[in-house]
Task: structure prediction
Amino acid sequence: MGLFSASHLTYPNSHRFLSHAYKAYNHTGADIAVSVRDLHVSLGGQSVLRGVNLHLHRGQLVALIGPNGSGKTTLLRAVVGLQKPDTGEVRLLGENNIQKALPRVGYVPQRFVPDRSFILSVREFLALRLRETQSWFWHRHRDTDDRLMADMAELGVESLLDRPIAALSGGQLQRVLIVFALLKRPELLILDEPTAGVDSPGEKTFYDLIGEIHRRRKLTVVLVSHDLSMVYRHASWVYALNGVVCCEGSPEQVMNADALKETYGLNISQHHHIGHPF
Amino acid sequence: MTFLENLPSFMLHAFTVAVVMGPLCALLGVFVTARRMAFFSDTISHSALAGIGLGFLVGLEDPTWPIVLFSLLIAGAILWLKEHTDLLTDTIMALLLSGSVAFGIIVLSLLKNRRGELHRYLFGDILSVNLDDVWLAIVLSSAIGMWLFTKLSPVALLTASEDLAHVSGVRTRWLNYAFVLVLTVVVSLSIRLLGIILVTSLVVIPPAAARNLARNLRQQLILSLIIGLIGGAVGTVASYHWDIPCGPAIVMACLAIFILSLVVGKFWLNQPTRAKSA
Result:
């Protein structure tokens, strides 16, 4: 059986991804970062994912879009093994055993609210990620800092080392979480609504930064976003999800009113911003 | 060492257990409070009453093992019900806490020669600590202390975020079980000294006092450990000198340190009582 099941081709707008599907079919598994086949997931008796199929190519910046409750977060959680599927198959970085692939994955969850009674500093939090800094309790700060500083500087958060993570603003916390995800030099970076809690001006800078990291590190990036202008600017491939994959394709293909209407179930009009089409 | 040499043996036993279990409870407490498991600790300590009742019912003079075993049974029941039912964790714990207390009280009231024991176990008694308890406390606290410091990074990451811990390769399910096991054993073994009603305070007050003074997790762990040590030692000595129950004496000593830490933290170190967002 090929990478795409027959049922996948029955989804509306399938013409948009036929060429991509054909490529995926003919590629070896090594080119695929994430492969999901006929994934069904229920939460509290409600069916959230109903036969999702997707194949993310290495090196792409893939955006998952869809309305609230469409299963975007559930899909990402299933991909990293946080959510057990009812049926279906997930293959992560060529591994059927997700646990084996996790050392090569960076993940930023949608919701992370540090407890104020737990006074974990940014330095200590980041040190928990790496084997060589896990004995931070016994080491001098300088030894730990040497290992963390380059990644912190890349995200512009090097001045936050001594701050408790519970005292960071939304934007600062998201950057620190990305440093956490990047510390192990992952091949795949998964960001679940990375701008939740970030103010509007900060969002653009943030997505520019993600785009820059994607280019510089040649990573595969998968992110959930509600910001369609970001999707248009940075994503190389888009999946529109609403329980199933409604459509997929390049941003130009997916960002048309018909495709969005199908995904969101609404009449959507496009608002053209200066500099880019949305 | 004149002070220790002049103490009667029962007091020396109680003092040793206090300076061993106090820091251990306080150290674990840093994670217990951050993981909002204080009520779990309370449930475990109260379930000991049923263990005591069962121990006396089968004719044991020393109910230490029934306490530990029944506490483990209740901890297992909490985890099982949490995973296999839709009941809220608080509801599960309230059910088991009240059920254990009711069962213990009924059994003790039926054993007419044991009615006087209730007060000792509710509030702690330095007279009830024997040499076997001392050795058990030393061996177990050494083993648990070493385990905790070996697993400090995974436990800290699990406390900060179970999702991030999972994605970082921590076997969260097993670490959760191990943490619950350790906490159950420590709480049930501290009951002799502190009493069922007050044992949780030694898990909660030292980390809270340390939080007032600390700027990072390392400081919070060290300070919590020291406060647990001082509170345990001062409380046991006060209990001996003024002939007062041991549990309340230790709690009052810890509480005095907490008030001092609040004043010092707020007015001297200028620590914010609430973490402010930048």
